[in-house]
Amino acid sequence: MGVAHGPAELAAVAPLSSRWNAVACALGAMTGAATGAAASLALPAGLGSPLGEAAAIIGAIAGAALAGAASPHMAWPRGRLAPHRPVATLPDQVTGLPTRSAFLSTLQAERDADRQRLRGVGIPPPRALVLIGLDRLRALNDSLGHEIGDLWLQEAAHRLIDAFDPPALIARLGNDEFALLSPAQPLRADDPALLGLGEALLHRLRRPFFGHGGELHLTASAGATWLTADKPIEQALREADLALRRAKRAGRDCVRVFEPSMKAEHDERARLLTALRSAVPAQEFRLHYQPQVDRTGRVVGAEALLRWESPELGMIEPSRFIPLAEESGLIVPIGRAVIRDACAVLAWWSQDPATKHLTLSVNVSPHQFQHPSFVEDVRLALQTAGVSPSLLKLEVTENVVISDMPSVQAHMQALRELGVRLSLDDFGIGYSSLSYLKHLPLSQLKIDQVFVRNMLSDPREAAVVRTVIALARDLALELVAEGVETPEQREMLSDLGCGLYQGYLFGRPVPLESLCVVQ
Question: Where is the signal peptide (predicted)?
């Protein structure tokens, strides 16, 4: 078999033969229009079918002549175009790979060549179509600069190209996305084969990348499907794209193989997104409040939790619409409204001596926190409501912290200067690091309910809770335990030194009018 499936096999793949150089030239690195009535295509000796046929077809279509066996990795200098070259045939300027339009043309040309060769004999075998997205390329560009991002794109292209002998068809479809069609050789046409191919490719991309004077560890996600003789090319691309989206939602750095259920899920998400876009101006979102209490059972504050009640779809769980709001960017206007409403509640509480001490915690998503207007949005909401900033707590997860440390530190410092308190939510379940705790202006840690739930029966969970409590005490941080549901859990937490609690033992999330804050 010509394609490597395992990490060890991929690592041993030799550099590409000169045949790929010729194909790459024909697909995207041709130097100009040929002179004369018809284009001439000078192919190096040894370039055989079907790759040679595909190259010849694309070269003839473009009306270009090869100028030797140029490297497929060479890109046109920025700002310079080949003379008389049709725009559709230009390669990607960063990687030198074909673009989407050239890739689609090549796929069709290869299909036509395969059908012509096998006419009356059989049908072309299935080929693996894989879409690969480089994870967090935008964050890399923002933090280290586009020069480093471009170097990573070029390095990723090299690694993908070098994974196959005979060569695969590879293109750069967009900012962080590559497409790859396996060579025209028999592959075991089942999902494990696709999964193994995808994993092997990601293994290549996980190898350290040397840039910015050091070693960078970067990842990618992949979606795969089969391109069969009877499947339209655009359908196969949609299937691979759906699988790639699933891989990204699963946490990235993984492979997903297309399943028919993904199409139904995509349609449902599209329907939900349409409703979500209408829900923002229609103000269909509501806040529910869960009390936070101290050792004596006195309510000291609450957490505001977002709920969506759609007139058409009914009550929709946050786990369904929050990720969609994140992906679509709608979380910014939604989050802005949540902070504004929370400040209005604090203003109402401040009018009563019995409730003026209460704090209110609001969850902030990574996308919202990194938005350029976020700090100003918070300042304006506080100013409009006329409340003390110290009564507002903004809860961020560890995903916010690790996304872009310099930007996060700047935003946190600006919020701290406003007087707003910052809480690190779900501490211990993400990328917990003591190094960032000492650099960030945090006021509070929250122990995740996962540890609280099992600490009475699992000594390891109890050890985590004990460690977090000691850490918060040593760093002079306030500590809240989430998910407290039994008196035994509260008693153990109290004995360990945690004095603030939140959970069903003290109350479920309820609308404001049902919240009991005065005993």
Answer: none
